[in-house]
Design goal:
Elements: H1 2-24, H2 35-43, H3 48-53, E1 58-59, E2 70-71, H4 92-97, H5 101-124, H6 160-175, E3 188-192, E4 206-207, H7 212-219, H8 221-228, E5 234-237, E6 241-242, E7 245-246, H9 251-261, E8 267-270, H10 274-279, H11 290-299, H12 313-318, H13 324-340, H14 363-376, E9 378-382, E10 396-399, H15 406-410, H16 423-431, E11 436-439, E12 448-452, E13 458-459, E14 462-463, E15 465-470, E16 479-485, E17 489-492, E18 508-517, E19 523-531, E20 534-538, E21 541-546, E22 551-560, E23 566-575, E24 581-591, H17 594-601, E25 606-612, E26 625-626, E27 629-630, E28 633-634, H18 641-651, E29 657-662, H19 670-675, E30 678-681, H20 689-697, H21 731-734, E31 752-754, E32 758-759, E33 770-778, E34 784-794, E35 804-813, E36 818-825, E37 831-834, E38 839-842, E39 845-852, E40 860-867
Parallel strand pairs: 3-5, 4-6, 5-8, 10-11, 10-25, 25-29, 29-30
Antiparallel strand pairs: 1-2, 6-7, 9-30, 12-24, 13-14, 15-16, 15-18, 17-24, 18-23, 19-22, 19-24, 20-21, 20-23, 26-27, 27-28, 31-33, 32-33, 33-36, 34-35, 34-39, 37-38, 39-40
Helix pairs in contact: 2-13, 5-6, 5-14, 6-8, 14-20, 16-20, 17-18
């Protein structure tokens, strides 16, 4: 009997093994077949319900077919974002300012290395959540047409050619060479199209009355380049409407242009919530139901919805609004993309899986973050050669709200570095702490300074708060981790970053304790925001609490302290599910007169003021409504008044004042440009920004960044924010006024001169590739980089742009040497909008080539050219 039982079991095992072997030989599981063939086979094995489940960003596993779960939503704007530890490079507007396409390619190759290493580590731990996949929704190649747009810092500036050049390098760096079996990652060109604010109305805004010239010469060129030249694997359609129709169902944009004219057959993904905007009250309201909206979007070519709207597709099929075969087209593209990435195959077959996790924030990547921060810095003014500063300076004052703010340097859509060098720390490293005095002086928009007391308390003899964590919601069980925290809490698990090693991402609790002795009788502010619950106790009494599930905005408890009295402070927190966040700070507000700050630093040999704005004020659809700011956009382009007043007081000391401007967009700086001794634009410079700024200030690096934006003198130079017409004076291409600093502008610690340029051919035919040779001399005494720029003006088109960038090259030139700089002008360099055909054409006739070191007329030489 036992023998018969064993034989039966053996037969079953053999049968199962044979079935498994047969399953592995199904066409969609065969890694040697083309991705298209595999995807079609897999599609044919799926039910309608299974197909629809794959058309939303959170695509569940289909276990019977061996399809793992994935979330298509991932970010890598300037480093792998929201997934814990990663190298944080300068924000993209700063990368644009490098005017160095090769360096941008190298940067994004490093980012994709980190992306692959992190993804495979997640897979090894059976994690398939948001921000853990391989489809990255970057780059943002919208045109930064107006400096008031808060998301403009995510772009590559105001010029279509610069944007296209940078965007193509981002895509190639992220996706890999395309020569291997699998793509490295997939990039996404967003937000298609005609999208650049306002943030406050983006879910209902209609970009309308857009001329065909503006559409083809300004808003579409970068998208076309990424699709037709860089083979970008995804395009994201925008929130807004275009000429009355939502971008994610827009027949002209998606069907006629993207699919048919440009031949794009890869994935189109909606912006998050964009399909819901079709039918939600108070949004576009162009469709009556989710079924109608989802059907129209899919039929228009939008394959993936970043919201749950496509769940309505099953009902839509039953109602006859769409056919299953229409849905199949989208699902095929989605399955093919995952196969191209190797996501349906074993990691052992995917060469990218061999990238070690040690590349994440490796020494080489941190060095690249420093190199890119250096290259991005633009020297705007340098009166009397005040810069570079001497390292033998006896006393330097560092003032300003951005001097010691590490989070400001990360901008938005960021990862989390192990260490960030602030501007203050970078300067201290040059001179030593004893030679540097620091005064915050003011907040970004207020002259009332918040002084944090987070390090003033202590617990068990250690400064700050003792932190204890439990992997339960109610403080039960063993303590999972402890820590000592002397800085403001800024915990955020949204990128799968645990609060402390050994602590869960969800379902945990924490207790923070300190004993604080009041240094004065004053009002102590306890400021907290959290998701989920929290409670604060002072001397055992609960003073502020929200012990529920859900996100709570910042709240403040005001504690009147007595000098010398001791206060026991305890903060308890629990997290249930979703994204865990906890921010807490305690301290006092003190109104500081600018004259008082100036008096305290007037004995310094020089003053560095680090100010501007931050991603806490400008960004994507924010809740910030302050004077000059609205929902992430700006209503004014002036430097905030608190900073202007302080700068004037500092200048009145008679000491040299250097302004380090941190921002994601341009500011109106007419007074600052005239009166301050030096101004540098540092953007949001990433984790090594402080070192980079110090290197420029003290001459260890010769600045060569160039402006990817126009610095206007006043908001009166700008048309209405909601007006998308370029000819009304938008960007250097149409602006006829006098900017404070023009597009392409930037100074150096050396001086460059230009000789007479030559073309490689005497007769040029329409459609020819033309090479221009430009002799550039470093006439100064320091080695340095110059950004050689070539603009073209179509002399036959009075309604067209004044000039438009069509070539550039960043070159290093030794002091005293001359270099022949060769710039190739491709077939599209002479392509302009043609009113007769209502499209882009290269037409015979007269043109001007303008070449030099910026877009300013005074910086450019002219070369006439006639296309035969």
């Amino acid at each position: 009997m036992m023998l018969l039982w064993r034989k039966a079991i053996g037969s079953v095992i053999v049968l199962l093994a044979c079935n498994h072997l047969q399953a592995q030989n199904l066409p969609y599981q065969n890694p040697n077949l083309p991705a298209e063939e595999r995807a079609r086979d897999l599609l044919g094995r799926m039910t309608l319900t299974e197909k629809i489940s794959q058309t939303m960003n959170g695509s569940p596993a289909i276990e019977r077919l061996g399809i793992p779960a994935t979330d298509w939503w991932n970010e890598a704007l300037h480093g792998v974002a929201r997934a814990g530890k990663a190298t944080v490079f300068p924000q993209t507007i700063g990368l644009a300012a490098t005017f160095d396409t090769a360096a941008v390619y190298t940067t994004y190759s490093m980012i994709s290395d980190e992306a692959r290493a992190k993804h495979h580590e997640f897979v090894r731990n059976n994690q398939f959540k948001r921000y853990q996949g391989l489809t990255f929704w970057t780059p943002n190649i919208n045109i930064f047409r107006d400096p008031r747009w808060g998301r403009g810092m995510e772009t590559y500036g105001e010029d279509p050619f610069l944007t296209a050049s940078m965007g193509c390098m981002v895509v190639k760096g992220l996706q890999g060479t395309g020569l291997g079996k699998y793509d490295k990652t997939h990039a996404c060109a967003k937000h298609y199209a005609v999208h650049s604010g306002p943030e406050w109305s983006r879910h209902s805004f209609d970009a309308k009355n857009i001329s065909q010239r503006d559409l083809w010469e300004t808003y579409l060129p970068a998208f076309k380049a990424l699709v037709t030249e860089a083979d970008v694997k995804e395009v994201m359609c925008a929130y807004n409407r275009f000429e009355g129709e939502p971008c994610c169902s827009n027949k002209q944009l998606l069907v006629k242009i993207l699919r048919e004219q440009w031949g794009f057959d890869n994935v189109i993904v909606s912006d998050c919530g964009a399909i819901r905007d079709f039918y939600a009250k108070g949004k576009h309201e162009t469709h009556a139901t989710a079924e109608a909206a989802s059907s129209d979007a899919v039929l228009s070519g939008t394959d993936l919805a970043c919201d749950g709207s496509y769940a309505a597709l099953e009902k839509a099929v039953k109602e006859g609004l769409i056919r299953e075969s229409d849905i199949d087209k989208s699902v095929l593209r989605l399955l093919r993309a995952r196969i191209q990435l190797g996501m349906l195959d074993n990691d052992s077959l995917v060469s990218w899986s061999k990238i070690p996790y040690s590349v994440v924030e490796s020494k080489e990547h941190v060095q690249q973050a420093l190199d890119m921060a250096r290259k991005s810095i633009v020297l705007l003014s340098n009166k009397n050669n005040t810069l570079p500063l001497s390292k033998s300076i006896k006393k330097l004052a560092v003032v300003g709200p951005n001097a010691s703010d590490s989070v400001m340097q990360w901008a938005n859509y960021n990862g989390f570095p192990s260490r960030t060098v602030t501007i203050l720390e970078g300067i201290q490293a040059k001179l030593g702490s004893n030679a540097v005095v620091y005064e915050k002086g003011c907040e970004l928009v207020s002259d009332t300074v918040f002084n944090s007391y987070m390090g003033a308390g202590s617990f068990e003899g250690k400064p700050g708060f003792k932190a204890s964590f439990w992997n339960t919601r109610d403080f039960t069980g063993a303590v999972a981790a402890t820590d000592q925290v002397a800085k403001p809490f800024n915990y955020d698990a949204g990128g799968n970053t645990v609060f402390a090693p050994g602590v869960n991402l969800t379902d945990f609790s924490a207790r923070f304790e300190t004993v604080f002795t009041a240094p004065a009788s004053e009002e102590l502010l306890l400021k907290i925001a959290a998701d989920d619950g929290y409670r604060i106790r002072v001397n055992g009494q609960e003073v502020l609490a929200y012990w529920n599930i859900g996100k709570q905005p910042r709240k403040t408890y005001r504690l009147q302290t007595e000098k010398g009295k001791t206060y026991q402070l305890q903060i308890e927190y629990f997290q249930s599910a979703g994204s865990a966040t906890l921010q807490f700070d305690m301290g006092v507000n003190k109104a500081v007169a600018p004259e008082q700050v100036a008096a305290r630093v007037k004995d310094a040999d020089a003053i560095v003021f680090a100010g501007g704005i931050s991603a806490a004020l400008e960004g994507e659809e924010m809740s910030v409504d302050l004077p000059g700011f609205k929902r992430g956009d700006r209503t004014d382009i002036e430097l905030p008044q608190a900073q202007k007043k302080l700068l004037k007081a500092l200048k009145a000391t008679g000491k040299p004042v250097i302004f380090v401007l941190c921002s994601g967009s341009t500011m109106a700086l007419p007074w600052e440009s005239q009166h301050l001794d030096g101004v540098i634009e540092a953007w949001y410079p990433g984790q090594q920004g402080g070192t980079a700024v110090a290197d420029v200030l003290f001459g260890d690096y010769n600045p060569a960044g160039r402006l990817p934006l126009t610095f206007y003198a006043t908001i009166n130079d700008l048309p209405d924010f909601e007006d998308y017409e370029m000819a009304k004076g938008r960007t250097y291409r149409y602006f006829k006024g006098k900017p404070v600093y023009p597009f392409g502008y930037g100074l150096s610690y050396t001086r460059f001169t230009y000789g007479k340029a030559q073309l490689n051919k005497a007769t040029v035919k329409a459609g020819d590739v033309v090479t221009i040779q430009i002799p550039v001399t470093n006439a100064g005494t320091r080695n340095g980089d110059e950004v050689v720029q070539v603009y073209i003006k179509n002399l036959q088109d009075a309604a067209g742009p004044i000039k438009t960038l069509r070539g550039f090259k960043r070159v290093g030139i030794t002091a005293g040497k001359t270099q022949q700089v060769s710039i190739e002008l491709g077939k599209a360099a002479f392509e302009f909008f043609d009113t007769e055909s209502q499209g882009m054409q290269v037409k015979p006739g007269k043109y001007e080539l303008l070449y030099g070191g910026s877009s300013a007329d005074a910086a450019l030489q002219k070369l006439a050219i006639t296309l035969q």
